């Protein structure tokens, strides 16, 4: 059975004190969350180690929001896979639409980053999704297909054990607009179909595909109830312990 995952992407929010407060709030409510749901949080780089230490005895996984593709060297301001692994981080988010649009990361670069993460035995949460213009022109499937093909479809079959996908329509991120549960299901099923065609149905069925884009307690249950939706990558609503936990509980009800 596929893993159910709720991951909080905190982006460039929370200083150390704010993060510890948020983590305390989450920890206090962990007993309510069923074992079948994996929780992940993605703090800023400066808070990763503290988060790891605070969450050590809990099932909550600390993941990174990004990393550089090179092993080491003269890349001022960047962080390597080995540095993440060195503090216990096993998973990295790659290809978030903000990295693509603000920091000009394209599928070619992301393919390199994915390879580096996998070479370091890390797990990747890989984000894909179309911008509003593409959705309005009904080109969302082409865009997502191209992202998959260019960044991931040269991977060997066994690499897929370490890939989690996050479908995040860019027009729904931080905008309050959510894809309807039907739109999410339609795209998630399409993604699974592409993987089945390129690889096989066993791999396609085993990949967790999260939905991201204005997930909140009020809509999580409906979105997560879709057959091909295996959880959420949550931004804004993950910045409050109560709403993050409530989203995780949406699987239960
Ligand atoms: P949002 O962000 O939940 O604030 O829309 C989601 C994301 O960017 O991962």
What does it look like?
With 253 residues, this protein is an alpha/beta fold. 42% of the residues lie in helices and 15% in strands. The protein has helices spanning 16-28, 45-55, 81-86, 97-102, 107-119, 132-136, 140-151, 181-198, 201-206, 217-224, 241-249; strands at 4-9, 37-42, 61-64, 91-94, 123-128, 163-167, 209-212, 231-234. It has an eight-stranded parallel beta barrel, surrounded by six helices. Helix 1 links the parallel strand 1 (4-9) and strand 2 (37-42). Helix 1 (16-28) runs parallel beside helix 2 (45-55), helix 1 packs parallel to helix 11 and helix 10 (217-224) packs parallel to helix 11 (241-249). It is globular and about 45 Å long. Bound molecules: 2-phosphoglycolic acid. The site of 2-phosphoglycolic acid has 13 residues, from strand 8. The site of 2-phosphoglycolic acid (PGA) has 13 residues, from strand 8.
């Amino acid at each position: 059975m596929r893993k159910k995952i709720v991951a909080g992407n905190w982006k460039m929010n929370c200083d150390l004190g704010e993060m510890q407060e948020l983590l305390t709030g989450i920890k206090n409510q962990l007993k309510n969350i069923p074992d079948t749901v994996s929780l992940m949080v993605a703090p800023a780089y400066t808070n990763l180690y503290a988060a790891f230490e605070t969450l050590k005895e809990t099932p909550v996984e600390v993941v990174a929001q990004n990393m550089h593709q090179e092993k080491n060297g003269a890349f001022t301001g960047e962080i390597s896979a080995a540095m993440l692994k060195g503090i216990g981080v096993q998973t990295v988010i790659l290809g978030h639409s903000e990295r693509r649009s603000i920091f000009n990361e394209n599928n070619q670069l992301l393919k390199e980053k994915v390879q580096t993460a996998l070479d370091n035995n890390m797990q990747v949460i890989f984000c894909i999704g179309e911008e509003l213009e593409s959705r309005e022109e009904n080109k969302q499937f082409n865009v997502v297909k191209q992202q998959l093909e260019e960044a991931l479809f040269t991977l060997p079959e066994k690499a897929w054990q370490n890939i989690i996908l996050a479908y995040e329509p860019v027009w729904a991120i931080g905008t309050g607009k959510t894809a309807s549960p039907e739109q999410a299901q339609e795209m998630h099923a399409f993604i699974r179909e592409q993987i089945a065609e390129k690889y096989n149905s066993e791999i396609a069925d085993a990949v967790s595909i999260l939905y991201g884009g204005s997930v909140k307690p009020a809509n999580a249950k409906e979105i997560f109830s879709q057959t091909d939706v295996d959880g959420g990558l949550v931004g804004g609503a993950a910045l409050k312990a109560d709403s993050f936990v409530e989203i995780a509980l949406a699987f239960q009800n």
